[in-house]
Amino acid sequence: MSKSSHFHPLEFNPTTGEPFLALPAPYENIIITPPRLSDAPAIILSMSDPAIYTFLEGPPFPYLPEHADQWLSRIKQETDAAIETLRRANEEKPDEPPIFLEQSPVRIIREVRDDGSDLFLGDIMFVRERYPDLDDKELKETVLQRNAARDLGDPEIVWCIGDFLASSHHGKGIMTAAIKTFIYEWAVPRMGVRQIRVETFSDNAGSRRVFEKLGFTYEKTVAIRKTLNSGRTIDGMDVLCWEAK
């Protein structure tokens, strides 16, 4: 598979043909790729790490092999479909501008080693906003339906980011660089993203710092008492917003 306009700015591994998004200096050894079924052991390790699961709402706890397999199977279907859409666009519309995609073909953060092998580090998910801070079910459903009904490329669509990074690589600026690269190199030009809204648990200062470094503006703290699957109870969510300039 060769690199061409509809895959831009993705590059391809010359050995495996796998697409990837490269981070700029000083993170040239970090790439964002599609998921692989072989990522399961690394995901289980991350989801069993209190430095990670303490700040995640969705994953089951304890996190079992079948949970990793199910998650990988689901997201791999999505990235495979995105890659196939781009491949067909290359064949059918080679002279047209790059198409917009709802799903990204890449999302898994990896560290490339000196010998060419790579290490699973984490995940970046881009989806239409789910408004987890809204308690009013009727209002939430109305807002969700309105956001979902907007056509891809509509600048009024509100998107959201979900992410995690192996604790062995916390504090190195990797997540900030990865999200920044993803936003400006893929989400904005290839998904039409113009508005992003994220929620972090109020006690997750590290995550909030990442988004503030990226230009997200603190909007509000929502008092919301919720017990996570891990058994931990949270008392609030910070909401931060970003708009393309």
UniProtKB/TrEMBL annotation:
GO molecular function annotation: acyltransferase activity, transferring groups other than amino-acyl groups
SUPFAM superfamilies in the record: Acyl-CoA N-acyltransferases (Nat) (SSF55729)
Pfam families: Acetyltransf_3 (PF13302)
Transmembrane segments: none
Domain N-acetyltransferase, residue spans: 30-217
Domain of life according to the entry: Eukaryota
Protein name: N-acetyltransferase domain-containing protein
Lineage: Eukaryota, Fungi, Dikarya, Basidiomycota, Agaricomycotina
